[in-house]
Amino acid sequence: MAVKKTLPLFQIGDRVKIHYSDWKGRIVEYRGPLAPGGRHVYRVRIPDKPKPIYIELPEDEMTAIPTRPKAKPIPSVSQTPQTPGQQGDGTTATFPFFRKGDRVEIRDTKWRGRIVDLRIPSAPERAYVYRVRVPAAPRSIYVELPANYLVAIPSPAKKKSRSAAQRRVRDERKDK
Amino acid sequence: MPSVSLLFWQNDRMPRLQQIDHQCATSLAAVPQNVHLIDENLRGYVVLLSAHFQGFCRDLCTECAQVIASKRRPSLRAMIREHFVAHRKLDHGNPTYESLKADFRRFGFILDLTVDPANQPRLADLSALNMWRNVAAHQGTTIPVGILLNLPSLRNWQSSCDGLATSLDAILYNHLRKILRRVPW
């Protein structure tokens, strides 16, 4: 039987859904290219009570479930303040701290600007880099900085726009 | 044609064990001899040999289950595979003859390795290997009577495991070919 050499699709820890069933589980072991045609086989742990179910499946009989990145824990009052994008253990955050359009001030300067772009890190431990537009004459200045050089500026509350009825009353008064 | 499990045993597991064999031989040849290092190397070798043989048996069991399940309709495959893996003795215990018989019983036949007369001394070696494996892994104080742990006996056990692996592969090939009515691998 011809065996095709391919790279494994999944990694240990990936969450998967098993085809033709309601089972969802997590890959716990890579078993090798043991299925017919050299397909890669994985051992999957399906949570169940009183004991979890283990099953060995080839890669084409399950689908990966995308997992959300872990939410950043909310720092308590007693904790020391951290710079944005810096975690408690000193490593750099792997999720974007700012969004496009956020107003920011650059640390140790009086420059203020707006985030216009963010660069995705090339490696898991690398920080996001933000492109900031600082208004200046005759042309705006663009700088690229990681999150720990930036401080968010709360945007001012928007003025309430008048409703159509209010506008009509105002126009009527003007006419009079 | 050999299974993927047997090819992995021959091309990956055996060369790895050969390296441990060389390490043991080197420590035995050193002058002056370090008795503790020799003992640790031999104990490491016996645990690794047992682990690799267990790994081969598990791989072969999985491969057979995958072949059988692939011949059924997709909606039944997960259920069939679960049946072959649930409470498998080779997932937790030593690769004893009893464990092998219990796990391969799921494929609808009683495994009898003694049909081949060459397997009888190999099974005795497997039993000795497992006894020493437990002594080494659990720091046991009760040493098996009449069985010495030295490099010649380890080489003999490795050769026996190799013979048993080839024999197991051939038995499973013939059985699956009979029940599936086609070559399994």
What can you tell me about this protein's structure?
The complex is a heterodimer of chains A (176) and B (185). By secondary structure, chain A is mainly beta. Chain A contains 1 helix and 10 strands. Chain A has one helix spanning 164-175, and strands spanning 15-18, 24-35, 39-46, 53-58, 62-64, 103-106, 112-119, 129-134, 141-146, 150-152. In chain A, the strands form 2 sheets. In chain A, strands 4-3-2-1-5 form a 5-stranded antiparallel beta sheet, with no helix packed on it. In chain A, strands 9-8-7-6-10 form a 5-stranded antiparallel beta sheet, with no helix packed on it. The longest helix of chain A is centred in the last third of the chain and has 12 residues, at 164-175. Chain A is elongated. Chain B is mainly alpha-helical and 185 residues long. In chain B, 71% of the residues lie in helices and 0% in strands. Chain B has helices at 4-29, 35-70, 74-85, 97-104, 119-137, 151-180. In chain B, helix 2 (35-70) packs parallel to helix 6 (151-180). At the A-B interface, strand 2 and strand 4 of A face helix 1, helix 2 and helix 3 of B.
Topology overview:
The complex is a heterodimer of chains A (176) and B (185).
Chain A: E1 15-18, E2 24-35, E3 39-46, E4 53-58, E5 62-64, E6 103-106, E7 112-119, E8 129-134, E9 141-146, E10 150-152, H1 164-175
Chain B: H1 4-29, H2 35-70, H3 74-85, H4 97-104, H5 119-137, H6 151-180
Main sheet makeup of chain A: 5 strands, antiparallel
Output the strand order for the largest sheet of chain A.
4-3-2-1-5
Largest β-sheet summary of chain B: none
DSSP E strands of chain A, number: 10
CATH architecture of the largest domain in chain A: Roll
Order of helices and strands of chain B: HHHHHH
CATH topology descriptor of the largest domain in chain A: SH3 type barrels
How many separate domains make up the residues of chain A? 2
Q: How much strand of chain A?
A: 25-35%
* Structural class category of chain A: mainly beta
| Mass-distribution shape of chain B | elongated
Low-confidence stretches of chain B: none
Q: Hey, roughly how much beta strand do the residues of chain B contain? A: under 5%
Name the helicity range of chain A: under 10%
Helical content of chain B, roughly?
A: over 70%
- Computed Rg of chain A: 27 Å
Tell me the overall shape of chain A: elongated
Mean pLDDT over the residues of chain A: 77
Helical stretch tally of chain B: 6
